[in-house]
Amino acid sequence: MITNHEIDYRIIGEEMQYVEVELDPNETAIAEAGAFMMMDDGIQMQTIFGDGSQQKNTGFMGKLFSAGKRLLVGESLFMTAFTNTGHGKKRVSFASPYPGKIIPLDLLRLGGKVTCQKDAFLCAAKGVSIGIEFQRKLGTGLFGGEGFIMEKLEGDGMAFVHAGGHVLEKELQPGELLKIDTGCLVAFTQTVQYDIQFVGGIKNTLFGGEGVFFATLRGPGRVWIQTLPISRLASRILAYGTVNRKEEGSILGGIGNLLDGD
Q: Is residue 131 included in any domain, yes or no?
């Protein structure tokens, strides 16, 4: 039985994409605050508590607990619902927050559940449940960093997540093992076994320049990988913007800037 609103969509753009969702009368899409880009006349915006997937007989405390878990992944208690209250088809668009790709996830075809990075969710059909997923293993919990608390998308409708840079979709065969930087992991289906592994080696740890831990994923299942995690991009920008280059203002500094393209 399909419980989510069925929506049509198209993804537009290359590096800075947005997704245009087409809503029939009384259909609703939900999105995180700040994802909205534009919409047709006849679509009504409404702030809702949680993701709107709870049943009508769910008590207030149940809704509060469900929405409150989203605070653990840095999200708001509230989301925005966009409902077509007019006649005929209407369109609403949601934009990606930084350069990368929007990934459409048909949860009905993906086993009803996809686990993704905590900041990856963009928008979805109403009825999709957006919750949190703790990685229960001790090593994952203590050292997982970006991979410890993740978001889970559950239901049988369409959901859209965003990733940085180029996105690789990989199908893991039964028993196949893949090792990924924790920040480069975007999402995986529920049949994939996920864990955190120590890189090992004192030289790797001190001088390798990479993370001390990486994610291990064992098939079967589907995995989405990004080339440019937002945390990596932010750290590079921060490092560049806060370090004073001693040679600036000197003749040698000018030559150096010309050589490195500045």
A: yes
